[in-house]
Amino acid sequence: MGFFDKLKQGLSKTKESFNEKVNNVFKNFRKVDEDLLEELEEALIMSDVGMETSMKIIDNLRDKIKSEKIEEVEDVKQALRDQMQEILDSVDSDLKLDTKPSVMLIVGVNGVGKTTSIGKIANSLQKEGKKVVIAAADTFRAAAVEQIEVWANRANCKLIKGKENTDPASVVFESIKVAKEENADVVIVDTAGRLHNKKYLMDELIKINKVIDKELPDASKETLMVLDATTGQNAILQVKAFKEAVNINGLILTKLDGTSKGGAVLGIVSENSMPIKFVGVGEQIDDMQKFNSADFVNSII
């Protein structure tokens, strides 16, 4: 099964929910008027798109209907698709890994699938012919290191780890050293699951960044936050809170296959001006790929 088919299958719950609410609006109206737009706005909010983003979509639709003199309900549906696509394309979701080595710093709260995401991304990069080193910098939990070790073996890439409670920055330092020696392409850094209000964890992240900046001053760096898609609109708020403490530049969305709340992707991108860089739609090692906005929109409406 190709990734688009996996995405389509994985988003089936979201599509069912989204289509039920949004398509019902289009079925119930024969005339393009304000009542249609109000019903559509409510359907988008109920589909986890978020109030702010839903209002923005409807305002833009209203302008488009007026400027292009749209009179057919089916044309409004196409205009909605275009609006969704426009939101997702308003931010650049391409990975910037232009130097050798480049760095990917992976952050996020506990339980969102951070470690498994790292394994899957490492596997994806290896398949592209890149040599990957993983830094097991979540040293607070022995289980975290064991888990990342399993995924590193599956992805067939090198893992650098320290003892339990080792300074995470020292693990990152060692990983960069090995990456330089072995001419690796990418260093992926696992970090402790943290909440934005845990100051000592944020201080640790600052320390890790200082090591990266000192050892690889000109390196491309992606700081990606992992989000659990099943949290829906709460994910929008989680990103807002995290952004205040960490300079993240992209998102990894996990568990899209287990939720009907995939509509939140639009709100997450729009309200945070933050691109989705990877999506996970399954538990297998190949079930995570770079985000494609057109595939996403075509999979849910």
Considering the chains and any ligands shown, give keywords for the structure.
301 residues; 8-stranded mixed β-sheet
User: How many strands appear in the DSSP assignment?
Assistant: 8
In DSSP terms, counting alpha (H) and pi (I) runs of 4 or more, how many helices? Answer: 12
**What is the average of the pLDDT values?**
87
What are the segments in which pLDDT stays under 50 over at least 5 consecutive residues?
none
How far the N terminus sits from the C terminus, by CA atoms, comes to 21 Å
For the largest beta-sheet, the strand count, sense and barrel status come to:
8 strands, mixed
Which secondary-structure class do the elements indicate? alpha/beta
Rg result: 21 Å
Q: Report the helical percentage.
A: 40-55%
Sheet-strand content, in percent, reads 5-15%
Backbone shape: elongated
Going across the major beta sheet, what is the strand order?
A: 3-2-4-1-5-6-7-8
Q: Give the SSE order as H and E letters.
A: HHHHHEHEHEHEHEHEHEEH
What would you say this structure looks like, in words?
This protein has 301 residues and is α/β, with parallel strands linked by helices. It is 52% helix and 14% strand. The protein has twelve helices and eight strands. Strand 5, helix 10 and strand 6 form a beta-alpha-beta unit. It starts with a helix and ends with a helix. The model has no long low-confidence stretch (mean pLDDT 87).
Write the layout of secondary structure elements.
Elements: H1 3-10, H2 12-28, H3 34-46, H4 51-67, H5 73-89, E1 102-107, H6 114-127, E2 132-136, H7 142-155, E3 158-161, H8 168-181, E4 186-190, H9 199-215, E5 221-228, H10 234-243, E6 250-254, H11 264-272, E7 276-280, E8 288-290, H12 293-300
Parallel strand pairs: 1-4, 1-5, 2-3, 2-4, 5-6, 6-7
Antiparallel strand pairs: 7-8
